[in-house]
Amino acid sequence: MKSLSLEIPWNIKSTLALGADMKRSFALGENRQITLFYSRKPLSTVEEALDFKEEVLGEIKRRGFQPRVVVGDLHPRYLSTRTARELHPDPVLVQHHRAHIASALAEHGITEEVIGISMDGTGYGEDGGVWGGEFFVGEVEELTRVGHIEYFPLQGGDSAARETWRPALALIDLISPERAEKMAAEIGPRAKVVLAALRKGLGVVPTSSAGRLFDAAAFLILGIRENSYEAEAPMALEKAGSSCPSAPPYRFALREDGEKLLLDPLPAFEEILTRKESPERMALSFHRGLARGIAEVAFKLRERTGIKKLVFSGGVFQNNLLTGLLKEEAKNAGFEPVFHRRVPAHDGGIALGQAVLGGLG
Hints:
This protein has 361 residues and is of the alpha/beta class. The chain has a domain of 128 residues: 2-Layer Sandwich (Nucleotidyltransferase, domain 5), CATH 3.30.420.360. The longest helix has 27 residues. It starts with a strand and ends with a helix.
């Protein structure tokens, strides 16, 4: 594992944070100092979790560190959360995307109110849904969820993160059931079963995942059916979009649901279905549309709050094409965009945010 020591602007209790399963990482913090240990390796098996636990305990012993607080992810079935429960009778459980934003605030020493934008593939939400396209407002101790990518149904659990046609089929069924039936017939018998399960609500959870939107777009634009490794399809979509000099943005519609702001991806996917252009141009239009939609949500939040500082965190922001477009949108609109520099934007950095939120509590 790599390690990174940071000075933070808050005093925290002696805290051990154990990250999340997608990336093996942990953090040790006390007073105004946190050391983050991180890697790209996942926690996928019980054996890996045991090795991880031994590594954590070894580092604690080596440093003579005595944590008063142990922090894990809110997901009840994560191996890292189980490890937190094994190491403390009452661990603090922190929502995944709040921890992402807190990690960026800690890295940059930001104590003021911000608009926090966290986007990735998956994170257990406080409502039991699969979050992954979230907007927050506030200081580190009080990050209020004020918006998200509008929920769409996801069927198949872990399979939905591997098989890109699953989120694509769910989105197209919301737009045109007839098109979804035709698509399922073209994909094959399993897709017909998945479509039937979607319509009956079997094995379905609501999701706001930006990562699954990228998967669906990669399937529809490039024909990539499966991620054989993490984010393979989204990276191919980024590469395709980066090779196109210009394209108009697809439309991500902004809706208000009471005080909550919802970013609706369905208009963008309708355009994917109807526009006949090169895959490269379509890929760029998708990226530009998402960047424009995020900026529109941020603009509406600035109207409400006066906040100009935008803080971005989550694995989606490893996408250089998207982050470049976001920087352009943000600066043109008079925002101050903040991205990770030293701390990983992906789940390898999440233990840092967990340590701050758990240690302050």
